[in-house]
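Today's session is about reading a structure prediction critically. Students often jump straight to the picture, but the first step is always the sequence itself: look for stretches that repeat, for charged clusters, for runs of hydrophobic residues. Only then move on to the predicted structure, which in these notes is written as discrete structure tokens rather than atom positions. Here is the chain we will use throughout the hour.
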Amino acid sequence: MVDLFMGILIIGITISMLLFVAYKIFNFIFEDHVLGVTLWRRRKEVSKFDRAAIKTILKRKVPYFNALSIGGKEKFLNRVLNHYIGKEFISQEGQVITREVKTLISAGAAQLTFGLDFSFLRYFPEYHVYPRSFKLSKRHPRMYGATSPKGLIWFSWAHVEKGYEDYSDGVNLAIHEFAHALYLQHRQGMVWEADWLVIYENWMAFAHSKLRNASAQERKFFRRDIRKIPTELFPVMVEEFFERPNEFVRAFPDIYVGLVRLMNQDPRNAKLDYRPKMRGFFG
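Below is the predicted structure for this chain, in token form.
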């Protein structure tokens, strides 16, 4: 009797483990696709008025959007809407969450991931928005933005706005924070683009090598010495990639080409919706 009970118990545990593994595999393969259908349905619920108002903000504030074709604009708008309706925008220190706040923050994610298959960054459900620079605790310095491996992103709205006012200074807070989030999303294994992290790690090693061998004068192209803060290298370079692509490719052509491959877009190629003309290489 005891043996029979133990046998049934072992079979039950084995079946439970197999079902759990099967669920995990299904979830990994299909969750992004299920999410895509859910977001598509929710986008349909956005009124024509709201959709037009969001599009007007993009036309007025986001140069990247204005250079796209009609089809490219529709793709970009849909990706903005995914964040607009699918994320929770949380006010901090009295910041009013307006349509423009949600649109411009969402636009940073849409621009960064425009060349990638999956752009929703589902590991990050909340965007916390402060009116200006902030401190997360007494121990922290004042900051303009922050991204946590725990799935949270904080923005200073004043600095998000400033990032779109000057599109040639190589500084865009929304893009910067979403670059941190994109890496953390892949590190968590929550994106069905398994090769992206491999390409990223190869590109990072290559970029570090190039910076080590560059002269002090050459490194001045970037606004800070990013050799000393490895986690800032990708976000800072991505800002330059989008806002000063011609200067970037002249200063560090190999690093730029590697970013084209990594992000599957080339900001110099606006006429073709930023599709890359060249394949990346390292070394």
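Discussion point for the tutorial: The CA atoms of residues 12 and 246 lie 62 Å apart.
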